[in-house]
Amino acid sequence: FIPTKSSTTSQDNNTNTLDDIAARGLIDYVDYGPDANSFLLSIGVLHYPSAENLADLLIERQESYFNQNKNDTEELISAKVRVYTNCLKQLSAASNVTQQLYVEPLRSRLINKPWCLAYQSLERSDGTKHQIFKTAKPTDIYLDDDHQSAIDLRPLCAPDEPELVKLYEKFGAKWISECVKRRLVHRGKCMVTDRSKKLGDRIHHRLDMLFVNNRGESMKNIDEKRIELLRKHFVIYEAEGIECQLTFQNRTITLSSTECSSCALESDRNQ
């Protein structure tokens, strides 16, 4: 590919030069001067890869591209992440206007091969936390619509970029709230208090908000009769504590009251 003029001139020349260096090994650019470049463009060489070519490049080169060696500085690694993220954003934009990414065998490769950039929070032996990045299959990455669960469980999460979240979801990434089983139960005494009464009044006025997912979308197959039953018999109590258990990827952790939700929804079939 031949770089455009805008890719070789920038108000921030240092950043631009670093990004040019960082792009090496991911996308191959050539520059033989105006005359030669003009000839190459006339015979079909492009300024940038098509959507399917870019997808192939990310799939085929992500491992070697991020294979860090001792000569890679922190600045260069950050530039590589920035360049790769920009490529993903270009792919996301293309996915909205072309069907090329959904045609076999490319579609299956995008589902089953690692190419998505993701982040994971880890804890060192001394208790300090740090974040790493890696490339993975979309099906191995979670979309963060439950940030507390993301903090507690530390799964591999998509970048906090709306366009990348949409792109990853198209090829199999799942919302973390749909993959975590949460069990909340009260501990100790529970009683009706002035605070619980005030909260009860607010919930009754906003009851419909209970029937949306973590992204604010209405839940499907809602039984209106059950909602009306809940409206009539819903009671709020104040408890001494609430225990929370999170089950994720066949692993269960228990959180204390200070680490989890401040409320638990319990039901009695006899009432």
Please count the beta strands (DSSP E, at least 2 residues each): 7
How many domain regions?
A: 3
Distance between the termini: 70 Å
Low-confidence stretches: 6-11
Mean pLDDT: 84
Task: Provide the helix percentage.
Answer: 25-40%
DSSP strand content? 15-25%
Topology pattern, helix = H, strand = E: HHHHHHEEEHHEEHHEE
What is the radius of gyration?
25 Å
- Order of neighbouring strands in the sheet with most strands: 5-6-7
Largest sheet: 3 strands, antiparallel
Number of helices: 10
Shape verdict:
elongated
Secondary-structure content class = alpha+beta
Give a written overview of the molecule:
The chain is elongated. A hairpin with a 5-residue loop joins strand 1 (116-123) and strand 2 (129-136). The strands form three sheets. It has a three-stranded antiparallel sheet with strand order 5-6-7, with no helix packed on it. A two-stranded antiparallel sheet has the order 1-2. A two-stranded parallel ribbon has the order 3-4. It is 39% helix and 17% strand. It has 271 residues and is α+β, with helices and mostly antiparallel strands. The chain has helices at 5-8, 13-22, 34-42, 51-65, 74-95, 106-112, 147-153, 162-170, 194-205, 224-233; strands at residues 116-123, 129-136, 142-143, 174-175, 181-191, 238-248, 251-255. The protein folds into three domains: 5-83, no CATH class; 84-179, no CATH class; 181-255, no CATH class.
